[in-house]
Specification:
The protein is of the alpha/beta class. It is about 35% helix and about 15% strand. Among the domains are: about 40 residues; about 230 residues, Rossmann fold (3-Layer(aba) Sandwich), CATH 3.40.50.1100. The strands form three sheets. Strands 4-5-13-10-11-12 form a six-stranded mixed sheet, sandwiched between helices. A four-stranded parallel sheet has the order 8-7-6-9, sandwiched between helices. A three-stranded antiparallel sheet has the order 2-1-3. The longest helix has 15 residues. The structure holds pyridoxal-5'-phosphate and zinc ion (ZN).
């Protein structure tokens, strides 16, 4: 590791803190096995003195790095040379203020914002992370890559692998993958291995396979992915005219996003680019609520980096003993052993954060409201609104605070959940098709009937 580099990798374990060059590709600390962070030698990077300087790049969109919603913030993720940076135009996403959706959660007008990451090239926020990780893969000369996936990681990885000439392999669990996502992985040319098991099984297998075959791993265990995902927060505050909102609400799966968001704010604060750090609410599904259980019921916290490993080990041993398999219609967050758990605990510490879990019914109702009044999203994304509804009702979040919900994936990723909700009249907002005889009079009668 050379101090002359702009960035290096550093173990998050306070009893280890080993450092490594960014020219190496690890999945976790070679000394102690803990997660790795990307750290910067800020004095070697020309970071703009104010965030609004980044806005100037909007005028230079014929430069591919300025066009990218990730790389136009490149000084804040300066770990590789420009020539290695991969981009397919990710991060052109919007923050939509939405009073109709605000009404559903009983918030005041002008307070609720939806950050719609479904507009990314592969239809989910994962592209923010892949553009960064594939740039690192290019930097280290990787030829092949792999990931375990509940769907969107594989779709995104397959797309980026193809665009920069890497071979890619996707590990998916049996059965529980949304078809929109599976179709993308196959269409973008990834080798797809379907394992008889759930996501957590795939996660374990892919790490061993990558080690044995020397493949570049693209799960959110990969610290470079999280660097790209920080830019979701930069774009939110950019759209708030460089002010931070009061709250960020995000779904929690493998906890990569929440980990990246806390790191983003801690760095901006350290650089003197923001004054206040927003609070964060991380929302689980009740059928996959490891984080909620550990934090709210078992008292697990960051504790200055000395996270109580015994509590985690006991919890996982119990899941194993009960042969527990997570279950939720929000397949993107159907994960019971989140790999970024510790980094997420750090985010809760940085952002004075909270966690909650919501049921599938609540997720589906919230999803229908977002579809009806805003931007259609997939179930995991709608967990944010379902969680927000609780947090407003119990007074944790004020109805007049400024809240940004991160809608992580596009509606069309998982049409089955949507069609079932409406056709099977599963909830308050179901809008089923009306069956009509092939007869004009009856059709008109049905169309104009009051119900
Ligand atoms: C991956 C994913 C999530 C979960 O994000 P984590 O960073 O793993 O917590 C949520 N929603 C969608 C749509 C996803 O693709
Ligand atoms: Zn270590």
């Amino acid at each position: 590791m050379s101090r002359a580099d702009t960035a290096f990798q550093k173990c998050i374990n306070p009893d280890c803190l080993a450092e490594f060059s960014c020219s190496e590709a690890f999945f976790n600390c070679p000394e102690c096995g803990e997660l790795l962070d990307i750290r910067y030698n800020w004095d070697k990077i020309e970071v703009p003195s104010k965030l609004s300087d980044f806005s100037k790049r909007w005028a230079m969109r014929n430069n591919r790095l300025d066009f990218s919603g990730v790389w136009r913030f490149r000084e804040l993720l300066s770990f590789c040379k420009d020539e290695h940076k991969v981009s397919i135009g990710e991060g052109q996403t919007i923050l939509q203020q939405n009073d109709n959706v605000a009404k559903y959660v009983k918030m005041k007008n002008g307070c609720l914002y939806l950050q719609y990451e479904g507009l990314n090239p592969s239809g989910s926020f994962k592209d923010n992370g892949m553009t960064a990780a594939f740039s690192h893969a290019k930097m280290v000369g990787a030829k092949s890559c792999a990931c375990a996936s509940t769907g969107n990681t594989s779709a995104s990885m397959a797309l980026y692998a193809h665009s920069c000439g890497l071979k890619s392999t996707v590990f998916i669990g049996s059965g529980r993958i949304a078809f929109g996502k599976l179709s993308q992985a196959m269409d973008y040319g990834a080798q797809t291995i379907q394992i008889a098991g759930d996501f957590d099984d795939c996660m374990r297998q892919v790490q061993d396979v990558c080690r044995q075959l020397g493949l570049y791993l693209l799960n959110s265990l990969n610290p470079f992915r999280l660097e790209g995902q920080k830019t979701i927060m930069y774009r939110i505050i950019e759209q708030f005219n460089w002010q931070v909102p009061d709250w960020i609400v995000v779904p929690g799966g493998n906890l990569g996003n929440s980990s990246a968001f806390g790191k983003a704010f801690a760095e901006l604060k350290e650089l003197g680019l923001i004054e206040k750090i927003p609070r964060i609410a991380i929302i689980n599904a009740t059928g996959a609520d490891t984080l909620t259980d550990l934090v709210n019921n078992k008292g697990l916290d960051w504790n200055g980096g000395r996270v109580n490993q015994e509590v985690i080990d006991e919890y996982y041993a119990d899941l194993m003993a009960r042969k527990f398999s997570p279950h939720t219609c929000a397949s993107a967050i159907e994960i019971s052993r989140p790999v970024n758990l510790k980094k997420c605990l750090r985010t809760l510490d940085i952002c004075n954060g909270i966690v909650r879990a919501v049921t599938d019914e609540e997720i589906c109702d919230a999803k229908a409201v977002i579809g009806k009044y805003g931007l259609g999203c997939e179930p995991a994304s709608a967990a944010t609104l379902a969680g927000l509804k609780y947090l407003i009702a119990d007074g944790t979040i004020g109805a007049d605070e400024k809240v940004a919900c991160v809608l992580t994936g596009h509606e069309l990723k998982d049409p089955n959940v949507t069609v079932n909700y409406h056709k099977e009249k599963q909830g308050e907002f179901s809008n089923p098709p009306i069956e009509a005889a092939n007869d004009i009079n009856e059709i008109i009668k049905l169309m104009t009937a009051k119900n």
